[in-house]
Amino acid sequence: MDTMHPRTRATLLAALTLCLLAGCAEDKEQPAADGSPSPSTTASPVVPGPPWHDEIAPAPASTTVGGKGSGCELPLTFSIGPDRTAKPIKVPEGELGELLGEELTKRGGATVRCEVDGRAAGAGFLRVWLTDQPTTDPRPALEAFVAGDEKASDPRYRTVRAGGADAVEASWISTNELLEEENRQWALAVRAGDRAVLLTVSEGLVAEVGDVLPGYRLAGRTVAVTG
């Protein structure tokens, strides 16, 4: 029987979310400036400032990840900047893993596959998720992912291009009640084979908007579907 007090569980979840996924540590269509994912033929004008911050340019490319041996095997590839490392997400073993593994690695029908650790560059983390079920449209997959954040508010969506592929981007506010703070989140969803791949970043304790978006922009701009 689980005898853990609800507040203790919540505190543990918050701390371990930072540790595991930080390296232990309305619907409005609008896109996309030079340096953000390229707009599609139906995309809206460039939107500087919140929520998209299209004025922020991508980081310089250093390494390509997504292929075998890259630390992040996916049905697509993308570039990451200098001082960034791709690595698979590891769930804690034993009772701790049973308690927290699913809460930290699954959301809205998607499972996190790997993360790009940019702490050495002051860039926080970029996480890569893959839908659990086949899909032909990345938009519903992205909407389900956002809805999986119970503290999400003010979600915005827009159609963009990710490399040579059509994609959908979302931005929303997520509230952490324990820490009493609001963080803006971004996610890009693209179809790769019979699944959707989601690239996600968040401002917060580790990095600010200007820190996380350059690597995210680079990843979106260099997506190449292989699966």
Structure write-up:
The chain has 227 residues and is an alpha+beta fold. It has one domain (26-225): 3-Layer(aba) Sandwich (Protein Transport Mog1p, Chain A), CATH 3.40.1000. The protein has four helices and eleven strands; from the N terminus they run αβββαβββαββββαβ. The protein has helices at 6-21, 94-105, 138-147, 209-221; strands spanning 63-65, 76-80, 85-88, 106-107, 110-117, 125-131, 152-162, 165-176, 181-192, 195-202, 224-225. The strands form two sheets. Strands 3, 4, 5, 6, 7, 8, 9 and 10 form an eight-stranded antiparallel β-sheet that branches. A hairpin with a 4-residue loop joins strand 8 (165-176) and strand 9 (181-192). The termini are far apart. Residues 1-35 and 38-42 have low confidence and may be disordered.
Please write out the topology.
Blueprint: H1 6-21, E1 63-65, E2 76-80, E3 85-88, H2 94-105, E4 106-107, E5 110-117, E6 125-131, H3 138-147, E7 152-162, E8 165-176, E9 181-192, E10 195-202, H4 209-221, E11 224-225
Antiparallel strand pairs: 1-2, 2-11, 3-5, 4-5, 5-6, 6-10, 7-8, 8-9, 9-10
